[in-house]
Design the sequence.
């Protein structure tokens, strides 16, 4: 698999949120505003790349039967280091990201990529996989949070985008709104993927004929 | 065996390295994190007291009137604020309960007793509803410049009543604390004479004379009062005995209360009831010593028993009705 394919795989074909449907807890929790989604996406991508890097480079030293506890130790250590450093030296970032950083430990995307990719692949593809998955996760969060923020608060990234007369649908920024939006967006994405696959099939059939 | 040992040792080394890495990071970041915390705390105090140069923590625990005072129970941090050595006022951190958790409000009160500004800290209110207390940019500034008697002019936000009322409570408590610091209450000795004077009169052995309670008809607060008797002792009235039967969890809980002339609960008896054994009955046994000697305005100090709230509330309501009955008759 070429590096570009690995990158595209994370963003489109195996998008963690829309195609693999992992990491639902942070997805539902932080998508109330686009700024939160960007913050969570960036923090998760960072930890994802670093944990893929470490696990991939340590993969020959870790016996298969203790890989799960080893992943937990690597991911948790790395997240805690990031958390402490951000808290100490980047107070502005800590204020907007503070609660999301500890959440990364339980983000199963990172765990899933460690298990499925980094543990069985060399370092460079693993890092690229982390980058692709991170971008894919961020994109998915931004799409969901855009829907929730625009219709739930009338703003996008804090700027007023809806006309003054627009009455925000407050439920979309509430937890139930997270489920509603996620369901609708997933349905649209699934329909699009199906449509795309069908047209590709038709094209191939025509080419054969 | 060898394989397990090998895996164990590797895991041990991995966790050891991780632990060393973490403790190293912790040592490096500990100081800066504490500085940041202090800076952000000072920032909220500075925000409500622009131009201040000095903050000095006031030890409220040793101040008269602060301990066990309901009126200032949410006030946790009080700072004396100075500007270039001149006293400027006080800041109060007051965190009453909102809808989704405590609402920390920093209130700055200037030397003339008026609010400088208020700042609402990190809240966990419902997004889009309770968070309007910070999202609506003109809510907090409404408090600026208010004196203690002008606080009621600030309206709560409809739809976010609990959260915005909590902010008002926070400010009210800050005013109370300010008042306490400027005018500390008189020492307790002076009032002790008064208290002994109102000690419950011994009502044992009194003769009961039924009282006509037909005037109670139509009064919802007195609907559950079954009878009232005048207690006479040696020809002198000593108080009232009221029979009330409120609905508990499983039917009626009859309570007979004796109240002295001075309006103090002398004694009471809970009659036969069908409350759940071990739950509702707990309320009756555990609350029993608490009602004796209470006055009408002290009834709210009795907390309901968790797990038996319905029964406890029925008991409290019975006492409330008994007090109301006596007040109606003596009026």
Sequence:
């Amino acid at each position: 698999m070429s590096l570009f394919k690995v990158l595209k795989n994370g963003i489109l074909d195996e998008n963690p949120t829309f195609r693999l449907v992992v990491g639902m807890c942070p997805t539902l929790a932080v998508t109330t505003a686009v700024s939160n989604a960007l913050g969570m996406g960036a923090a998760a991508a960072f930890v994802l790349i670093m944990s893929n890097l470490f696990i991939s480079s340590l993969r020959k030293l870790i016996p298969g039967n203790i890989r799960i506890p080893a992943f937990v130790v690597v991911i948790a250590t790395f997240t805690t280091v990031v958390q402490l450093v951000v808290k100490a030296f980047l107070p502005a970032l800590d204020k907007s990201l503070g609660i999301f950083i500890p959440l990364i430990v339980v983000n199963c995307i990172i765990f899933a990529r460690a298990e499925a990719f980094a543990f069985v692949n060399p370092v460079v593809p693993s890092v690229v996989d982390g980058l692709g998955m991170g971008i894919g996760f961020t994109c998915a969060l931004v799409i969901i949070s855009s829907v929730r923020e625009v219709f739930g608060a009338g703003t996008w990234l804090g700027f007023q985008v809806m006309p003054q007369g627009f009455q925000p649908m407050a439920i979309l920024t509430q937890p139930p709104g997270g489920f509603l939006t996620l369901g609708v967006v997933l349905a649209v994405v699934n329909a699009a993927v199906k449509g795309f696959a069908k047209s590709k099939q038709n094209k191939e059939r025509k080419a054969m004929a | 065996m060898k394989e397990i040992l090998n895996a164990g040792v590797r895991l041990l080394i991995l966790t050891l390295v991780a632990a060393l890495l973490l403790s190293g990071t912790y040592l490096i970041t500990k100081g800066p994190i504490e500085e940041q915390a202090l800076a952000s705390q000072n920032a909220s105090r500075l925000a409500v007291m622009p131009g201040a140069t000095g903050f000095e923590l006031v030890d409220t625990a040793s101040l008269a009137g602060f301990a066990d005072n309901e009126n200032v129970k949410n006030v946790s941090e009080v700072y004396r604020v100075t500007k270039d050595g001149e006293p400027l006022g006080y800041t109060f951190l007051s965190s009453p309960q909102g809808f989704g958790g405590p609402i920390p409000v920093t209130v700055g009160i200037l030397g003339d007793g008026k609010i400088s500004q208020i700042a609402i800290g990190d809240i966990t209110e419902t997004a889009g509803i309770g968070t309007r207390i910070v999202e609506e940019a003109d809510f907090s500034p409404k408090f600026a410049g208010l004196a203690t008697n002008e606080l009621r002019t600030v309206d709560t936000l409809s739809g976010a009543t609990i959260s915005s009322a909590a902010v008002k409570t926070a400010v009210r408590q800050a005013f109370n604390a300010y008042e306490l610091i400027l005018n500390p209450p008189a020492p307790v000795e002076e009032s002790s004479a008064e208290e002994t004077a109102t000690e419950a009169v011994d009502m044992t052995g009194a003769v009961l004379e039924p009282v006509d309670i037909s005037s109670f008809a139509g009064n919802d607060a007195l609907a559950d009062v079954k009878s009232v008797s005048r207690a006479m002792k040696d020809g002198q009235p000593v108080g009232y005995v009221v029979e009330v039967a409120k609905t508990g969890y499983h039917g009626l809980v009859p309570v007979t209360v004796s109240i002295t002339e001075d309006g103090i609960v002398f004694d009471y008896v809970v009659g036969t009831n069908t409350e759940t054994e071990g739950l509702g009955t707990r309320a009756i046994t555990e609350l029993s010593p608490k009602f004796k000697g209470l006055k009408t305005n002290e009834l709210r100090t009795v907390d309901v028993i968790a797990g038996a709230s319905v029964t406890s509330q029925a008991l409290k309501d019975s006492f409330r009705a008994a007090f109301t009955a006596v007040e109606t008759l003596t009026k």
Summary: Chain B is about 35% helix and 25% strand. Chain B touches chain A at residues 3, 6-8, 10-11, 14-15, 18, 21-22, 25-26, 28-29, 32-33, 36, 39-40, 126-129 (CB under 8 Å).
